[in-house]
């Protein structure tokens, strides 16, 4: 399978209204009619500011943390991880979803696995369906997967189809996307990559991915390699795979070495630690980055994919198309 600063706009849930906006008279989403009564005196202005400030502070505890707001009617975000026997994988996925909850406190966020770890995706959906009986089950499955492949095209639609009475949408996989480039560069920097390495004639990068026989998955990984190369200043980035397809990570290292590239880094294109990530890192002759893990950019991307799925009116047709691909 599968911390740069969080963007200030993403740090607020969609149903929260920034304090400065309320002070300027902007109405929160879903609020009643805006009070447009003219303010005749400074005292009236100060009174309104005080009222708005009191409302905002009522959502904050004494230690400065934000109170968890009551659940909204938004569909549940179910992040779908692959699963791994490596115990770090579950801890990492859980930490990532904690970041998602911090970004959008009012959103119900849950985890499901395709295999190897609990809770399994069907169990997560069954529990959600049991809780919402009589209210209607609404969820968005967001793959914690980095490209199109069998799991995205078949396993997720099958899990959704098992609950025909539920409104379950399927989001796009995480990659390729610029936010993943941000996380990859951050992890490389943590491992020892320097800005000047991007223009060095001796440096190169292997983008190590899980691998899939689905050509769309390989295409997505190649696109990520191109984006990463561009962000790093043009250094060659070769996609390589831990299973299913060629080249392997050792083969990609040899290819770069043959081109005179001896400072070769492995960028770990895995959402969470696991056997593939560990084996890929072991093949590097220089530095190996950690998996993407609980990175703020990844948390923002999960929410973006969730929002995109909700804004796509033809999601039902998309589900049928994925199920028959």
What does this protein structure show overall?
Helices cover 42% and strands 13% of the residues. The protein is of the alpha/beta class. Strand 3 (138-143), helix 5 (150-161) and strand 4 (167-170) form a beta-alpha-beta unit. It starts with 18 loop residues before the first helix and ends with a helix.
Mean pLDDT: 82
Spans of 5+ residues with little confidence (pLDDT < 50)?
A: 1-39, 54-59, 67-71, 315-325
Q: In this structure, how is the largest beta sheet organized?
A: 4 strands, parallel
SS summary, helix count: 11
Strand order of the largest sheet: 2-1-3-4
* Rg on CA atoms, Å: 23 Å
Q: Could you say which overall geometry the principal axes of the C-alpha atoms support?
A: elongated
Residue fraction in strands:
5-15%
> In terms of structural class, how would the helical and strand content be classed?
alpha/beta
Q: N-to-C SSE series?
A: HHEHEHEHEHEHEHEHEHH
Amount of helix? 40-55%
Distance between the termini: 22 Å
Q: Count of DSSP E strands?
A: 8
In a nutshell, what does this entry contain?
Helices cover 42% and strands 13% of the residues.
What labels would you give this structure?
four-stranded parallel β-sheet, single chain, 11 helices, alpha/beta, disordered C terminus
Furnish the topology, listing elements before pairings.
Elements: H1 19-23, H2 42-57, E1 76-81, H3 87-103, E2 109-113, H4 121-131, E3 138-143, H5 150-161, E4 167-170, H6 178-191, E5 203-209, H7 215-231, E6 237-241, H8 249-258, E7 263-268, H9 275-282, E8 287-288, H10 296-310, H11 315-324
Parallel strand pairs: 1-2, 1-3, 3-4, 5-6, 5-7, 7-8
Helix pairs in contact: 3-10, 5-11, 6-7, 6-10
